[in-house]
User: What shape does this take?
Amino acid sequence: MFLFVVKKCALVGVLTTLVFFPGKADAQSEITVETLRELSEGRSLVRAIREVETTGTPYLFEDFKAGHITLSNGVNSETLMMNFNVHKERVEVIQGDFALSIMSDRLAGFEFTDMESRYLFRNGYESRRLSPDEFVRVLAEGEVTALLRYSVSLQQDVPTYGVATQQDRYSHSQRLFIKKDGEIDRVRRMNERSILRSLDHYQDEMRDFILQEQLDLENSDHLERFFQHYNSFFED
Assistant: This one.
């Protein structure tokens, strides 16, 4: 768990840079770190005005991970050290002592590559409870496409007895969506019963698979294995 403490009148030593990309580019070329620096605009120092203690993190991971981004025009980046700021809905790339914030409307997707499980994110999926602008993790594709929506909320001034500082807290949650037959529906709960009921076939086989593999379907990496196995029944 992250713990951030900001003292009064202290400077937060992070520079945030908004990055804008040109409208046209060669889809076969790569956007490099040097290009990211050249395209960056508008640095700002953040000043704290009161003593605040924040628990949790707005990011998907505790550490920045290797990965790459894909722009909406098809241009791919080289390998970057990056993280997904779920609370702000943006990808941040570490460069030296500051972070580049990549504007989400310029991205088609991004992927964390140095991982045991697949962490591929795309947007463009739309349903009653899912905006096409939101990035979701694509757990599996095939007979069904399993999508995981990460959310982080910030609770400010959390009541804490006997503490003078302001207490803020980041809280994480996940929502599962399944696309089949061209329709995207949210699975009401991330548990065995709800997920099995969302499937049209092989429910008994998938129940056995959960037991054999000792899967916890509230775990996103276990969910990935579950849906990849389900889709394998439909492969030629």
